[in-house]
């Protein structure tokens, strides 16, 4: 009789201990690059914010402390006296200069934005003869430095007797070739042709389509155009210098320059505190309009 024998199990082996996993060497590189990038951006931000810090500190100093103390740290606090002197000097003409700058910048920015929106929308959505040539001329105008246009503008304004009037600054401020370029690029990428055709089938006029559809969709680009033109007109110096003789029509940039060049009565502290006050409207404009910006603006520029 044959007996079946079951094979005996061999000696059991204990599982080998798990080896600790080593982090790949490449993983430390992103951390190092992030640290270097953050440090670089911090240095760049410090470089750009140093003039702002100097302006804030210098606005609190008197004329003697402005030149006799550390430029990047406070001395005797004189901000209140500087502000009172600023708003009362020459019968309060600084407020008049600020009002003129607001009028030129806001008025010119609004008109330039509306004209750029109409021109850009028309170039993007209508096919007509000479459209490419017109757009090429607009691109050429973008490349021309603004100071080079000051003398031709002055000659044209003198022909129509608009020199030394508010129109000498408002009319040139209402034109923005860069705004037309940006509006055309954004309208091509963001305003659907199908939506325009549907509105036409519903009986809407071309201006109503532009006003109710085009302007609403193009609003991020229009806010950008307005802010660019606002800053450009606010900082404009050369054109008012050659077209305005009446100091009651001067913008704040020209007025502060006149105070800075007055050797008979130095206004160094007033120029500094006036520069600080004149920045506040620009900061307020950016702060109030930043919520209208969208990432679609960048997407539109990439799609174009």
Provide a quick synopsis of the model.
With 304 residues, the protein is an all-alpha fold.
Structural descriptors:
304 residues; mainly alpha; MetI-like fold; 15 helices; 68% helix; globular; disordered C terminus
Describe the protein.
There is one protein chain. The protein is an all-alpha fold and 304 residues long. The protein folds into two domains: 33-77, no CATH class; 83-303, MetI-like fold. Helix content is 68%, strand content 0%. The protein has 15 helices and no strands. It has helices at residues 28-58, 63-68, 79-88, 93-125, 131-143, 150-159, 167-173, 177-190, 193-201, 206-217, 219-234, 238-243, 252-260, 268-289, 296-303. Helix 3 packs across helix 14 (268-289), helix 4 runs antiparallel to helix 11 (219-234) and helix 8 packs across helix 15 (296-303). It is globular. The termini are far apart. The model is unreliable at 295-304 (pLDDT under 50).
Write the layout of secondary structure elements.
Layout: H1 28-58, H2 63-68, H3 79-88, H4 93-125, H5 131-143, H6 150-159, H7 167-173, H8 177-190, H9 193-201, H10 206-217, H11 219-234, H12 238-243, H13 252-260, H14 268-289, H15 296-303
**Apparent shape:** globular
Secondary-structure element string:
HHHHHHHHHHHHHHH
Give the overall average pLDDT: 85
Per DSSP E runs of 2 or more residues, the count of β-strands stands at 0
- How far apart, in Å, are the first and last alpha carbons? 93 Å
**How much of the sequence is in beta strands?**
under 5%
């Amino acid at each position: 009789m044959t007996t079946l024998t079951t094979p005996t199990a061999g000696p059991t082996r204990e599982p080998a201990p798990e080896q600790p996993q080593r982090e790949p060497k490449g993983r430390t590189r992103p951390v190092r690059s992030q640290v270097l990038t953050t440090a670089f951006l911090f240095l760049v931000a410090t470089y750009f914010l140093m003039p702002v810090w100097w302006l804030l500190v210098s606005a609190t100093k008197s004329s003697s402390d402005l030149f006799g103390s550390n430029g990047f740290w406070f001395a005797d606090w004189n901000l209140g006296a500087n502000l009172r002197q600023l708003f009362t000097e020459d019968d309060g003409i600084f407020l008049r200069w600020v009002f003129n700058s607001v009028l030129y910048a806001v008025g010119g920015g609004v008109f330039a934005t509306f004209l750029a929106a109409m021109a850009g929308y028309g170039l993007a959505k209508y096919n007509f003869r000479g459209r490419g040539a017109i757009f090429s001329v607009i691109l050429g105008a973008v490349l021309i430095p603004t100071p080079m246009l000051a003398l031709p503008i002055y000659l044209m304004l003198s022909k129509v007797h608009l020199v030394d009037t508010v129109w000498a600054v408002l009319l040139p401020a209402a034109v923005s070739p860069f705004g037309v370029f940006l509006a055309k690029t954004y309208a091509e990428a963001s305003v659907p042709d199908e939506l325009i055709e549907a509105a036409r089938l519903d009986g809407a006029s071309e201006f109503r389509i532009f006003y109710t559809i085009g302007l609403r969709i193009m609003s991020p680009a229009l806010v950008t155009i307005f802010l660019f033109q606002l800053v450009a007109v606010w900082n404009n110096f050369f054109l008012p210098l050659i077209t305005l003789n009446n100091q009651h029509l001067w913008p704040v940039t020209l007025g502060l320059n006149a105070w800075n060049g007055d050797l008979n009565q130095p206004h160094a502290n007033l120029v500094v505190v006036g520069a600080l006050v004149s920045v506040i409207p620009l900061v307020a404009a950016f702060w109030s309009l930043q919520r209208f910006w969208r990432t679609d603006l960048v997407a539109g520029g990439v799609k174009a």
